[in-house]
Amino acid sequence: QVQLAESGGGLVQAGGSLRLSCACSGSICIIHPMDWYRQAPGKQRELVATITNSGSTDYADSVKGRFTISRDNAKSTVWLQMNSLKPEDTAVYYCRMRLYWGKGTLVTVSS
């Protein structure tokens, strides 16, 4: 059974930074790509960043140059470093691995 648990969300002023963590439990955690998604109020869930098991990354255009995804396979953990945050980054952020989703962590960016 795979479980994903996000943490690190909170309230931050525009221009600030947050670091989200996603702890993955289960033997397959180190094998598959892992993703961060977000869902803002009234909007569809969107892919923010993805990282393969070998460390290759990809980002949504809206966060390129500001967000960095990384992982530590030994710890089965993925991080999302978010810098230069904007009010439009306000959303619930979710970690995903294959069909498994975490419960999300809320990020609120005040102007």
Describe the protein's topology:
Layout: E1 3-7, E2 10-13, E3 18-25, E4 34-39, E5 46-51, E6 57-59, E7 67-72, E8 77-82, E9 91-97, E10 100-101, E11 105-110
Parallel strand pairs: 2-11
Antiparallel strand pairs: 1-3, 3-8, 4-5, 4-9, 5-6, 7-8, 9-10, 9-11
Describe this structure in words.
By secondary structure, the chain is mainly beta. 0% of the residues lie in helices and 53% in strands. The protein has strands spanning 3-7, 10-13, 18-25, 34-39, 46-51, 57-59, 67-72, 77-82, 91-97, 100-101, 105-110. Strands 2, 4, 5, 6, 9, 10 and 11 form a seven-stranded mixed β-sheet that branches. Strands 1-3-8-7 form a four-stranded antiparallel β-sheet, with no helix packed on it. The protein is globular, with a radius of gyration of 13 Å. The model has no long low-confidence stretch (mean pLDDT 96).
Short description:
By secondary structure, the protein is mostly beta strands. The chain has no helices and eleven strands.
Cα separation of the termini: 40 Å
- Major sheet description: 7 strands, mixed
Helix content: under 10%
Write down the Rg: 13 Å
Give the mean pLDDT: 96
**Helix-strand sequence:** EEEEEEEEEEE
Helical run tally = 0
- What's the total count of β strands? 11
What overall form do the CA principal axes indicate?
globular
Structural class of the secondary structure composition? mainly beta
Low-confidence stretches: none
How large a portion of the residues is in β-strands, by DSSP E? over 45%
